[in-house]
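JOB MANIFEST
job_type = single_chain_structure
chain_count = 1
residues = 110
[input]
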Amino acid sequence: RDFSLELLPNHPPEIHLPDGIGSIQRSDHQLICKKTGQTTRLSLPEALLNQPLQLKLHHAGKVRLYGKTPREDIKKIWQKHHVPVWMRSRTPLIFFEDQLVALMCESLNG
């Protein structure tokens, strides 16, 4: 099942993800992900600090990575970051417009 939600700067304070996956919070300059007792902080690129972001728990097909031109198959991105198939639907994806910024709270921008 698809889950998609807009993340606006500083609002709301914390979002609880479905199925007990964890939570995500957006502050002035970072995203804070809490999953299974682990907290990960992702610093946002300066150009995105005041931009709305999209949180998704599913994406299929090709996607453009933030700051890059060519599109890449999301399956290849999962594989490159060693995310097992069974975890992919439980791993938050962060988008800006149609560009993938982060997965599993790991920056994809170099």
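[summary]
DSSP finds one helix and eleven strands in the chain.
The longest strand covers residues 30-35.
exit_status = 0
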